[in-house]
Amino acid sequence: MGTMRRSLCSRLRNLTFRSFLLLLVLTTVIINEFLVHRIQSWRWPAMPHPYKDSEEEMRILFVSDPQIIGYQDESMFPIGSLTRWDSDSFLSRTFSLAFSYAQPDVVVFLGDLMDEGSRATPAEYEIYMDRIESIFYSARHVKKIFVPGDNDIGGEGRDFRSPFKIARFENHFENLTGIERVGFIDFIKLDLRFNRDMPLEQRKLLEKLKKHFTAPLRLIVNHETMLPKLKSFIHPILMEVQPHLLMSGHWHEVSLGPVSGSIEVGLVGGVLGYGVGEPSMGYRVGLIDPEGHVKYTVLWLPSRYIQLYAYLGVLVLVAILFISCCIMQSLWQQQQPRYPR
Q1: If you placed Cys at 112, which of 38, 105, 151, 269 could pair as Cys (CB 3.0 to 4.6 Å)?
Q2: Residue 112 CB neighbour total at 10 angstroms
């Protein structure tokens, strides 16, 4: 009878200990995947209630450099699959939260949507498109503007541009250059590159686009920033377009500065810098009225790397506790007297 009682107590202790370990893991998951994002959103700056009429104020949510993780440079199964799933989940949750918070009239993607878009095979590209639709599903009914980055169509280092890469992007998204009018703003896509003076073809393009400016405000959206470029590179562009604001990505950091009478705002890179190792990530929201008054802020996100380190720490702790418990239980059983049957 005593042996049965000791056996039952031992099982209850093991059950309670295992339940504690399971509760510790579940608590970490709930905090990392749900509570942290909500708590961070409470720290976002208060935004005025949106106008019913978008002609009174335009709300723009900017997404720069999400760089959705690809397939060629990642580890093989299961590490690569787990990394892609984790990154996509993080992007989806944070974008949905930012979208709900900002309630934008338009979402502007400032390039580098995909980490390996310019090198992706046709099959990989189609999978990319499904993932993009799933990640940014919250914005399915809102106007979206897409600007390509070097990771999408090439153009950096040995990853050269090609007509095939450009055509593929335009077939799946929209033209590299053009004008998108939304409310009182002309969003001007120029696909600007500043490694040389403006070629004659680009000058003719600007003159052609200039004839189609219809909105009172003009906003250039581009992946590559103008801030560090020589005046001889950008002055002809600004003289032709005369933009009120320029928005760019690529740098993976926040920057603000005047550009020959206009203002350029460089966005937080990689809202998902997560995919490219950025510790600070966020979405930028701009509020613009018809008179050209601009308010903007960054909706900072919690560091995913800290969350992953927390997971690693908890798993190590659980492993240590579990192994210690097994050792202690084994030693305890060895010390118990054995009664003859």
Answers
A1: 151
A2: 28
> Scanning the structure block, which residue is given the tokens 């104020």?
57
Residues 36 and 69 in one domain: no
Phi and psi at residue 121, in whole multiples of 5°?
Answer: -70, 165
In-domain check, residue 161:
yes
3-state helix, strand, coil in the chain (%, to 5): 45, 20, 35
Place of tokens 């418990």: 325
Q: In this structure, are 269 and 319 located in the same domain? A: no
User: What is the pLDDT averaged over residues 100-104?
Assistant: 93
**φ, ψ of residue 235 in degrees (nearest 5):** -60, -45
Q: Would the pLDDT of 79 be above 60? A: yes
Q: Are residues 2 and 109 in the same domain?
A: no
Instruction: Supply the CATH number for residue 64's domain.
Output: 3.60.21.10
For residue 290, cis peptide bond before it (omega within 30 degrees of 0): no
How far is residue 341's CA from residue 336's CA, in Å, rounded to a whole number? Answer: 15
- Spatial separation of the C-alpha atoms in residues 123 and 18, rounded to whole Å: 44
Question: pTM score > 0.90 for this model?
Answer: no
Structure tokens at 212: 């189609």
pLDDT at 189 over 80: yes
Q: Which two tokens stand for residue 192?
A: 């600007």
Specify which residues 186 forms β-bridges with: 181, 218
Whether the CB-CB separation of 110 and 147 falls below 8 Å is answered with: yes
SS (H, E, C) 73-132: CCCCCCHHHHHHHHHHHHHHHHHHHHHHHHCCCEEEECCCCECCCCCCCHHHHHHHHHHH
| Residue 325, amino acid | C
The answer to whether residue 49 sits within a structural domain is: no
Strands (DSSP E) contained in the chain are 58-63, 106-109, 143-146, 178-182, 185-189, 217-222, 245-248, 255-259, 262-266, 282-288, 294-300
* Angle (nearest 5°) at CA 145 between 143 and 147: 170
**What is the average per-residue pLDDT within 230-237?**
71
C-alpha–C-alpha distance, residues 31 and 314, integer Å: 12
